[in-house]
Design brief:
The complex is a heterodimer of chains A (about 350) and B (about 120). By secondary structure, chain A is of the alpha+beta class. Chain A is built from eleven helices and twelve strands. Chain B is an alpha+beta fold. The chains are: A alpha+beta (about 350), B alpha+beta (about 120).
């Protein structure tokens, strides 16, 4: 028998490099733009032909492609989601969406009821969305598993939302850190729960810099307009408007890079340590050029944008193996229905781990 | 359906207990497949195996009846084995063809232009 893991089960000898006594496994993304373009356009067309029904199959096929071309060592990830549960989840999401639309537009006096329902539903959507993604993501014939519960998410979300409201939004980084800590530490692979070590202070630092990126120049604009005795011209306001959008874009890329690095570098899974080195500048360049390309091509360059973003992210990501892979052993997680994930997506409720 | 010559696939075996890869070979013939790992061989009826859907040129996975899994490169034999998602076979066939993709581009552009006219 040829055991690629070696007698100690440390790592695939052909794909691991030694670094500080730990084996370093690199991520690689092997997807090709031309191949993904064909998958994307064929599935888009079938979705249009079937008035959206095929979108569940399209989602599953695209995810499967992206997962199966993401390799850790020499092994690809697997997306195990199936189209029919996703379709059912989408139908539930559509019913909720129509209810929201009808109530808020036809009987606005009952809008508070919808808001109350959405408020109650949010923890459920987050917990189920994370559980679904975990359960249907597999690596080497083992699935991930989330043990997040409605009560756990609700306690963290509602408690820290109240604190955020009371502090006029200043405690928002704490809310993000606590929610991520709860979700990560309730995720398992092979029966081993993950640990989350990123601190509130690190979150506050990232959000503070992002706030300065937007608030600093904006403050200068406001002060200069206030100092000007004349009323601001339309052109001047347009420039401010565009500048605010650009600043928001910069802050978004900055936060995406910093928080992703924080989350992964602060996560441990048994003998695995993650190293994520996304650069805010590179991510900003990728997002900016992707946006331009997608607009200029009427959307046809979406697959190109997806593949290049995935390639960059995989390149900046690695795993250090400090122990034995045999620490991971089977998982008893049960099947999770897709509705939570679909509701989350429909209402743009992305917890962005 | 044309007959295929028996084939031997080089596979990586995952036992579903630990995330460790083991090299093995899978010999497939008309009614049976034999998984060979070192000196040991285990036979399976072809109907007992189940294959993950084809998606581009990505590796495919064969699930064995006891829950173990094999990773291998795509091969014509894999289309003869029971599929995990029967409905996706035709879509995978469409996705492999540039002519279909270009037709889909034309159709999507036509639909979006019609949508634009409708809005005006």
């Amino acid at each position: 028998m040829s055991d690629e893991a070696g007698p100690s089960g440390k790592a695939d000898e052909e794909s691991a490099e030694q670094a500080d006594g730990a084996a370093r496994l690199s991520f690689r993304f092997t997807g090709a733009t031309a191949e993904y373009f064909r998958i994307w356009i064929v599935n888009l067309c079938l979705t249009l032909f079937t008035a959206g029904v095929f979108s569940a199959w399209a989602k599953v096929r695209k995810k499967r492609y992206l997962y199966s071309h993401t390799l850790l060592g020499r092994t690809p990830f697997q997306y195990l989601g199936r189209p029919l549960p996703v379709l059912k989840g989408r139908m539930v999401a559509a019913v909720l969406g129509v209810t929201w639309y009808v109530v808020t537009n036809l009987v606005p006096e009952f809008s508070w009821l919808v808001a109350l329902a959405a408020f109650g539903l949010a923890p459920w959507a987050i917990a189920r969305s994370v559980a679904f993604t975990a359960r249907y993501s597999a690596y080497r014939n083992l699935t991930f598993c989330s043990r997040s519960t409605y009560g756990g998410v609700a306690g963290t979300l509602y408690g820290w939302s109240l604190v955020t409201l009371a502090t006029c939004g200043l405690a928002y980084p704490c809310l993000r850190q606590r929610l991520t800590r709860y979700l990560v530490s309730h995720t398992e692979f092979g029966g081993v729960p993950a640990r989350f070590r990123a601190s509130v202070g690190q979150y506050i630092g990232s959000y503070f810099v992002a706030g300065l990126l937007v608030g600093g120049p904006l403050g200068i604009f406001v002060v200069s307009f206030a100092a000007d005795k004349h009323a601001p011209s339309v052109e001047g306001l347009q420039i401010v408007f565009v500048a605010v959008y650009l600043l928001y874009f910069v802050a978004f890329a900055y936060l995406r890079a910093k928080i992703t690095n924080l989350v992964w570098n602060g996560t441990e899974l048994g003998p695995l340590r993650f190293v994520c080195t996304l650069s805010a500048r590179s991510l900003l360049w990728i997002y900016f050029t992707n946006t331009l390309a997608v607009f200029a091509s009427a959307g046809l360059l979406i697959p190109w944008a997806t593949i290049r973003t995935m390639r960059y992210r995989a390149k900046q990501f690695a795993v250090h193996l400090t122990g034995d892979l045999r620490e991971f052993a089977g998982s008893d997680c049960s099947t999770v229905q897709a509705a939570g994930a679909e509701v989350g997506e429909f209402f743009d409720l992305d917890v962005a781990l | 359906m044309s007959t295929l010559e028996p084939a031997t696939l080089s596979v990586r075996l995952f036992d579903g207990v630990h995330p460790i890869a083991n090299r093995a070979r899978l010999r497939i013939a008309s009614v049976q497949a034999e998984l060979v790992q070192g000196e040991c061989g285990t036979s399976y009826g072809l109907e007992e195996l189940s294959v993950s859907p084809r998606i581009g040129l990505a590796p495919r996975f064969i699930t064995l009846p006891e829950g173990r899994q094999l990773q291998c490169a795509d091969h014509p034999w894999l289309d003869r084995l029971p599929q995990q998602e029967k409905t996706e076979r035709f879509v995978a066939w469409l996705e492999q063809r540039w002519s279909v993709a270009l037709g889909a581009v034309a159709q999507c552009l036509r639909t979006s232009r019609r949508g634009d006219r409708g809005h005006r």
